[in-house]
Design brief:
Chain lengths: 165, 599
Amino acid sequence: MTASSCRASAHGCDGKYRKLEEILQEYKGVPGALIPVLHQAQLLFGYLPHDVQVRIAEELDLPLSEVYGVSSFYSFFSLKPRGKYTVSVCMGTACYVKGAPALLEKIRETLQIEDGETTEDGLFTLDTTRCVGACGLAPVLTIGDDVYGRLTPEKVPEILERYRQ
Amino acid sequence: MKLFRAHVLICGGAGCISSGCHAVKEEFIRELQAKGLHDEIQLIETGCVGSCDLGPIVIIYPEGVFYQHVTPEDVREIVSEHLLKGRYVKRKMYRHPSSGEPVVTSREMDFFRHQTRIALRNLGLIDPERIEEYIARDGYFALGKVLNEMTPEEVIREIKDSGLRGRGGAGFPTGLKWELTREAGGARGEKYVVCNADEGDPGAFMDRSILEGDPHSIIEAMAIAAYAIGAGQGYIYVRAEYPLAVARMKQAITKAREYGLLGKNIMGTGFSFDLEIRVGAGAFVCGEETALIASIEGKRGEPRMKPPFPATAGLWGKPTLINNVETYANIPVVILKGAQWFSRIGTEKSKGTKVFAIAGNINNTGLVEVPMGTTLRKIIFDLGGGIPNGKRFKAAQTGGPSGGCLTEKDLDTPVDYESLKAAGSMMGSGGLIVMDEDTCMVDVARFFLEFTQDESCGKCVPCRIGTKHMLEILTRITEGKGEEGDLETLEELAEVITSSSLCGLGQSASNPVLSTLRNFRDEYEAHIREKRCPAGVCTALKRYEIISDLCKGCGLCARVCPVQAISGVLKEPYLIDQETCSKCGLCLSKCPFKAIVMK
Ligand SMILES: Cc1cc2nc3c(=O)[nH]c(=O)nc-3n(C[C@H](O)[C@H](O)[C@H](O)COP(=O)(O)O)c2cc1C
Ligand code: SF4
Ligand code: FES
């Protein structure tokens, strides 16, 4: 199974699966290892492919249903491939009061996608979050690890453009 | 140790990072090198100073001169004027809001002057990545004192006498919780200490700032707690949205181990304790203690029935002490300065200070720590500098999605656990969102309900289905489709959800609706009966009209309207067809004669 999905996907896949095995060995026997392992796996693959979940279940000695149950419970885990950059609009209270909805609308319009969707070129996935802790600069937007504060809808296209290069 | 003649502190809090403080730091490094000053002047990146909207912030000691909105282009001037010639750079200093005069140090600014900093004592003063700086400010002294001079019972007595209560929401007496956990399952059994750093309240960021700006204070406090209750292992549960906090905490744990302050045989006393970080995965309900425990165990973060409380059956069924970040941050100070000192601050039933994260429609956003019992008016208008753009104060939300709104009439109430509850809100974690007159309270209630509905774990039917039903009604009202009887239905649903939900999320989910209904019922009624949003927020209820007296008939509006809703003859007043109008507001912004109004 591992090999077939590898053939289908991009280069460097083997390395990822090898790394996954290392992670699994590291966490084997650690109490409560599932969530840390899912975090690492998602970091590695960008999301949690089905065969990865299967390996995790086998190695941590858990029913697959539990691995799936946990992966789907937490919004941070994604079961679908994601774009290269995740564009996240903070919809926390501070940001909401300071105009986050208009910001979100502008991004939807600029990228032509709805929340949770990925652009056709695979570059951006649009998401909302609940407070990234930069409320003093609301409204806030994060793209990958970058945080942008004090935004207005007009600034959106230019910021997104920087990631297209 | 090297001696420096001056220290340049750059705020590295989340706010300042997004305002570009790292570029400023780079420039300082270059400039100090270029001027050959790097041996006399030390550059330090600190945790959050607190006044996020003034960032990037640079503070230069020994004088403590406060520079705001510093850009890389300002650095050369600051170095050559201030650091070389001793002349302050007036144009980058904070200006007093009424006199317009430059203010030299933060001690003279209203935002800082009224604060009493206990939990935030080191924020903005030390480099969080250097354990030596924490130690230089009495860090790990409390742990030393506890391990060498106090019995666990004495530690618990001290915390109990201090009157410290949990800062994570419910305000449960901390010392009592420690005592219950110590007594549970015998003194020798396996126990755990947990730090709740899930900080779910959207709009609160004090826990994040403490973890990032003073991580050792949490390690020290957790070690003290472990000694007091008899635990050997601790967990810090940090939300996934805070990667920097996770990194800083990891680094601090490694350093503490190197220094023999964590691990086996701490300070040679025979006491052993170690810490592990667990990262959340984006579920608000995991801030609830039993859900958090389930999450550390690697399960779905669903709350369970209490009792048994974590104190008796927590992590892996063992007695577990769980406290919030800010609660822990107070502990070393209580131990060093004593319960008596601590209990002199605050009100009769709420001792010490509380950190508030002020955000929303307010001039000075950021973190403030004030004695319990400070009035809302003082927090919002003195420290917070009031409402921007000459707008009127309308409401302040405390307690996040579980809390309620406070209005004009509550401004002079001394803020503590009891008074907020009496006012129909709650302390929560200390998020304080200020809203001005342009805020629609029905929309705010809908926003909070959307939040709780989305975050409900789904275990209890009333919470899962009831909040959904409430949200549907609220959405209808904001869309102008509200009906008579809706408000009564909302109140009935609220009662059922509150009384039959398992955890605090469901039990308090209706609070924002009930409190806005109590304080702003007329606004709800205007939406339902007159199909009007008094604050002009709800898009579906907006109406754009052309004032015929002001309209010169230029036709610009008709040309910009994307849906051709405007018609007319040149040089004569134009008209908007309400049926076609999509309420985009483009015409309003384009009219050169201000002849278009939104109602
Ligand atoms: C839905 C829900 C969310 C909560 N979120 C948090 C949180 O993010 N941080 C926190 O410290 N406490 C949170 N709590 C409170 C915890 O259950 C618990 O009371 C607290 O961590 C105890 O620490 P303290 O006594 O030091 O306040 C939450 C409670 C509920 C019901
Ligand atoms: S009240 Fe809501 S969030 Fe809490 S356990 Fe029940 S369904 Fe889950
Ligand atoms: S509410 Fe958006 S960063 Fe906190």
